[in-house]
Design brief:
CATH topology of the largest domain: Aminoglycoside 3'-phosphotransferase, Chain: A, domain 2
Shape: globular
Organism: Drosophila grimshawi (Hawaiian fruit fly)
Oligomer: single chain
CATH architecture of the largest domain: Alpha-Beta Complex
InterPro entries: CHK_kinase-like, EcKL, Kinase-like_dom_sf
Distance between the termini: 63 Å
Helix content: 40-55%
Protein name: GH10995
Structural class: alpha+beta
Radius of gyration: 22 Å
Length: about 425
């Protein structure tokens, strides 16, 4: 049996992931090739992402060198590239288990996404292929490496321009629309997606996630209280924070007579990969990380994306055009699939987005401060550190000192006030 070679950076940053052993990669290779007639001759494992880019998991980039025994030229060495996502078990980080992130992601990649892609006649891909997964001793999933197909990540610090946003919203509309059809064909399939990031179970007062968002709320109030002309908004934020947990739960909770889709649940820049042509024009987008997916209003994904991932100028001036782009693609997709799913009107879509502005407000102070940080400040951002109250408080103070964050909030907070987010 061959051994695994680890690169120097991985060895320096942390102990090698012993749960990712040769049998794990043998299973992944068999699934990827759809044959057991292959022999691994070498495995190389390295760090797969920059520190601070992934908060719930460790990412490894793996290369498997192998020879096929059923080839005409069996001596020819070939390579399979994998991205392995490992979710460590950390004390005091209960929401990982509460949300069943491993089970949810496994079911999504193995069952839901392939069926959605079949509905789309395999002309669209909604995610990478999942080749292998284990639950113990750590949750771990091995995916195809989309980097080998030319996909790269956008800039979370700068946000996305209009061209990238249009592409994302077209793909998101197809994902949402096809999930509506799948729910008609298999009504029980969405039962696993009842709990999202802001479910009551995850936001218990004494747990890490609620403490984290509470700290962000306090930093938001502290920041806005210093801005001339924002006194009224600062007052309203202070009142909002008195019942912050209730407001957060309500912002995601299912509402009567709403449009319902499978939401990605964590739709921000780092969970979207882009592909470009030779002239560096963006051609395609594909989503990753479905561990927070939730069944509910499309207004959840749309508001979350708008308030975490757009260039400020795009958010200020192109929001109606982007919503129209999303609606046009959703309409075209539902009509093409022709399964009797009612096509929402544009006015219905706007109403869904408006009803979920509170979720957008949450994204703007609970998530944007994390994802808009300069990379030089994110090397120590991980769940283990953020579960420490003193570290989380110091990190929140650092996040809310960002010039970009302040500029965005000066625009978005008056918008949320006009939308009635604070008048609950």
């Amino acid at each position: 049996m061959c051994s695994i070679e680890y690169d120097q950076q991985l060895m320096e940053d942390s102990p090698p992931p012993k749960h990712l052993d040769v049998p794990f990669f043998e299973e992944a290779l068999e699934t990827a090739l759809r044959t057991s007639r292959a022999q691994i001759v070498g495995i190389h494992c390295g760090i797969g992402s920059c520190n601070g880019d992934n908060y719930c998991s460790k990412i490894y980039r793996v290369r498997i060198n192998y020879k096929r025994q059923d080839d005409e030229s069996p001596q020819k060495e070939q390579q399979l590239a994998l991205i392995v996502k490992s979710i460590p078990r950390i004390d005091n980080v209960e929401f990982i288990e509460d949300l069943q992130v491993y089970l949810k992601e496994k079911c999504t990649y193995f069952e839901v996404l392939p069926r959605l892609e079949l509905l789309m006649q395999c002309k669209v891909r909604f995610g990478p292929k999942l080749y292998q997964c284990i639950r113990l001793p750590e949750n771990a999933l091995a995916f195809e490496d989309l980097g080998q197909l030319g996909y790269v990540m956008g800039s979370r610090e700068a946000g996305l321009d209009e061209e990238h946003c249009r592409l994302v919203l077209e793909r998101l509309a197809e994902f949402h629309a096809s999930s509506m059809v799948l729910a008609i064909l298999d009504p029980k399939i969405m039962e696993a997606y009842g709990d999202g990031m802001l479910s009551p179970k995850c936001l218990q007062e004494d747990r890490m996630l609620m403490r984290f968002f509470a700290g962000h709320g306090q930093q938001l109030h502290k920041l806005v209280s210093r801005w001339p002309g924002y006194e009224r908004i600062a007052e309203k934020i202070e009142k909002y924070l008195v019942q912050q947990r209730e407001h957060l739960v309500r912002s995601q909770a299912v509402m009567d007579k709403e449009i319902r889709v499978l939401n990605h649940g964590d739709m921000w820049v780092n969970n979207i990969l882009f592909k470009y042509d030779g002239k560096k024009q963006v051609q395609n987008a594909i989503f990753i990380d479905y561990q927070m997916s939730v069944w509910g209003s499309p207004g959840l994904d749309l508001n979350y994306f708008f308030y975490t991932s757009l260039e400020l100028d795009v958010l200020k001036h192109k929001r109606p055009q982007l919503l129209r782009c999303y609606h046009n693609r959703m309409t075209a997709t539902l009509r093409r699939l022709d399964m009797g799913v009612p096509v929402p009107s544009y006015e219905q879509l706007l109403a869904e987005v408006h009803r979920r502005e509170a979720f957008g407000f949450f994204a703007s102070y609970g998530i944007l401060p994390i994802v808009s940080q300069d990379k030089a400040q994110t090397s120590d951002n991980n769940l283990e550190n953020l579960s420490d109250e003193n570290f989380a408080k110091q990190k929140a103070e650092q996040m809310f000192n960002s010039d970009r964050l302040g500029e965005i909030l000066r625009f978005t907070l008056p918008h949320f006030e006009r939308a009635g987010v604070f008048d609950i």
